[in-house]
Amino acid sequence: MRVSQLLSIAVVIAVLWSSAQVVEGEVAVDLKAGAAKADITPEHWPHPLVGTFSERLADKAWDRLHARAIVLQSGEESIAIVVIDSCYVPRVVLDEAKGRIAKQTGMRTDHMLMAATHTHSAPASRDRREIKADPRYVERVTSGIVAATVAAHRQLEAAEIGWAVAYAPDEVFNRRWFMKPGGIVENPFGERNDIVRMNPPRGKNLLDRAAGPTDPDISIVSIRAVDGRPIALFANYSLHYVGGVPAGGASADYFGEFARLAEKRLGSKEGKPAVVGVLSNGTSGDINNISFRKSRPRKQPFERIREVAGYVADKTFEQLEGVQYRRRIELAMTQRLLTLDKRRPTPAQVARAKQFLAAADESSLPRRAKPYAAWTVKLAEPPFQEELVLQAIRIGDIGITSIPCEVFVEIGLELKAKSPLPLHFTMELANGHYGYLPTPRHHALGGYETWLGTNTLEEQASVKITQQLLEMLEVVSSVQSSSK
Questions:
Q1: Nearest CA to 481 among 333, 279, 271, 332?
Q2: How many CB atoms lie within 10 A of CB 112?
Q3: Domain tally, the chain
Q4: What is the pLDDT of residues 436-455, one digit of tens each?
Q5: Whether residue 12 has pLDDT greater than 70
Q6: Which among 26, 307, 374, 380 is least buried, having the fewest CB atoms inside 10 angstroms?
């Protein structure tokens, strides 16, 4: 071989080696990221909104609703995380969206995590007893999820990622309370056998103590291009919706306002994909932002939403200043299907429910008796099991689990404490919706979240789900980068 040929080969090797370097001596792997959002605001009005027992019709949107997608790719592994401005989205809609995305991108459907934010001011995406979803809007949500994810996949580019945790205790309160004598009221079944009460009157002398803890952490994932340009800011906070939305309009609640603030503060570079802000809901089935001990001044519409979103954004951006970014991470995801029994009412409960449904005069019935009677009768009919999609993700030192319920905070705290990865959070209302998920302890305490209809899964559901997710975390945490 000639000397000139040897020199040419040496030059090529040197160029390839130098292109594989990153700052601070790290060796680059092919970490890529993309993010995009799609507008899912209704195009036809009016729409019934979900989240209450009475019908609320909206003929406008106070702010825009979106599906926001992040796609990560490292080597042969690709995952998608999609957060949707909706109270909940049924599995059938999400499965349809995943199938369409797979056809357009080649991604695996079991490597897509899709979760609703739980805004209570969104149009229905499935039929319920008192609400019928508009098929045109269901298709808009489905196609929006697809459009956002496909765009994020198309925009994949060399990227780096960093993570942090912010402490934000001021807006999370457990809403279930032990009450002093006289504080327990009749439930929809005509009983007074609850031990705790959800959302009791504030500042009253009937309050004893909160029935559970809170999770004050904001988990933060920052994704940027290798030149430092922000791609996405993804946060998770265990707080229910905030509310305070004026009647007659749809809203993304504080989740959408956080995303808007994040995108504004980060800014987008002309000619490049727009930065995407995302706030997902953690384990907040028993958490809201009502301070029960101290009264707060009444707020104007949207004022509390802006305050909470601003508070979460401020805490998040304080932590961003110290984030260290990596281009070499382990990326892994696994999914399992778990079959659980549904709650089964007794014959006596079914008989009483049918009496309530047959009653012509509702004034003699307990408050909200008929909706719960209808749910009770339905739970006595097949199918008697539900199949849940559970997922676990590893992104470097981050562990993410998903549960398709409104999850009690103690479950999220247990997963966080036992996770083999240093930073952990759970996304609720992911890949479907199957009501509230209390622990067995809370089932024994009773209250709104445990009533037949509000809660539909067996009383040991949280134990079985937690066990599965911890096993799955062990699987993804054992994955090592193929480049090491």
A1: 332
A2: 28
A3: 1
A4: 999 999 999 999 999 999 99
A5: no
A6: 26
**Strand duo 230-237 + 276-281: pairing:** parallel
Is residue 355 included in any domain, yes or no? no
Least Cα distance to 428 among 279, 263, 259, 271 occurs for: 279
Question: What pLDDT digit, counting tens, does each position of 348-405 carry?
Answer: 999 999 999 999 999 999 999 999 999 999 999 999 999 999 999 999 999 999 999 9
- List the domain range (segments joined by +) for residue 139: 29-176+206-341+384-477
Dihedral of CA 228/230/232/237: which sign? positive
In Å, what is the CA distance from 366 to each residue of 158, 183, 236, 306, 446? 60, 17, 38, 36, 17
Q: Omega of the bond prior to 42 within 30 degrees of 0, cis?
A: no
Cut 0.70: pTM above it: yes
Token pair recorded at residue 185: 């009221």
125: in domain = yes
Cα separations (Å) of 258 from 40, 263, 382? 17, 9, 41
Q: What is the DSSP letter of 288?
A: E
383 preceded by a cis bond (ω within 30 of 0) = yes
The region that residue 412 occupies, defined by phi over 0 for left and psi between -120 and 50 for alpha, beta otherwise, is: alpha
- Confirm whether 183 is domain-assigned: no
